[in-house]
Amino acid sequence: MNAIQENAFTRCLRELGKRLPEPKAVCVISAHWVTRGSHVLGVDWPRTIHDFYGFPRPLYEVKYPAPGAAAEAKRLAMAQHLKVDHEWGLDHGAWSVLRHMYPEADVPVFQVSLDHERTLAEHVALGKELQKLRERGVLILGSGNVVHNLHKINWEMANGAYPWAEEFDAKVKKAMAGRDLEALAAPEHWGGALLGEAHPTLEHYVPVLYCLGAAAETDEVSFPYEGMEFGTISMRMAMFESQTA
């Protein structure tokens, strides 16, 4: 619902879009595109995918007609031996964020899928290869949730969280601030039960590994937005911003 709502989270996205230098393109790593093998979206005009159900009609009417970035996608695919995909589009992990950052839909966008066969360390390794995209003016956008457990949502905790959710969120924040890729690539070391509570499945966790992998040692780390919702959802934003741009 953040895609169509006006609230503190969406206002933060809008302000970031205004403040950051306009990118040549955006490369999105979304929790909502999981594949066998890593794919890149290589189409000129990605379709808007409504990959959810049970929400109000206005959400399904949203279109985000941004152009693709097929040349960048194919260049990445060739360099990293990834599969170019022509069937996917922009899922809600991408457009629900981008429509606030770039409401005119005038910045080219492509997505990189999450290969479910990769280890967490291998996701980090591919993230490091995305540094080359940043050097060419491409913004790397990881879209997931630091804590994401839909099975234990508590609708009476609209702006609160269970202690285990707050604990996991705090551990990830500390690791991101300290560039501790080793800890982030092995979150089970914080406790298998804690990880299982925070992420029954890992697709919402993995995008942060790409962002950390793509970050330079000289980047400034900040957290433009922090908040927990419905007991089990972290809305934390983390930004790794070049100081030479």
- Output the helix-strand order: HEEHHEHEHHEHHHHEEEE
What is the CA-atom radius of gyration, in angstroms?
A: 17 Å
What form results from the Cα inertia axes? globular
What's the number of structural domains?
A: 1
Low-confidence stretches: none
Number of helices: 10
The CATH superfamily title: LigB-like
**Major sheet:** 3 strands, parallel
Q: Provide the structure class.
A: alpha/beta
End-to-end gap: 33 Å
CATH class: Alpha Beta
Approximately what portion of the residues adopt beta-strand conformation?
15-25%
> CATH topology, what is it called?
Protocatechuate 4,5-dioxygenase, Chain B
Strand order of the largest sheet: 4-1-5
Query: What is the share of helical residues?
Result: 25-40%
Would you give an account of this structure?
- The chain is α/β, with parallel strands linked by helices and 245 residues long.
- It has one domain (8-241): LigB-like (Protocatechuate 4,5-dioxygenase, Chain B).
- The protein contains ten helices and nine strands.
- The chain has helices spanning 8-19, 57-60, 70-80, 92-101, 120-129, 131-135, 163-177, 181-184, 192-198, 207-214; strands at residues 25-35, 39-41, 83-85, 109-115, 138-143, 220-225, 228-229, 233-234, 237-241.
- The strands form four sheets. It has a three-stranded parallel sheet with strand order 4-1-5, sandwiched between helices.
- Helix 7 (163-177) crosses helix 9 (192-198).
- It starts with 7 loop residues before the first helix and ends with a strand.
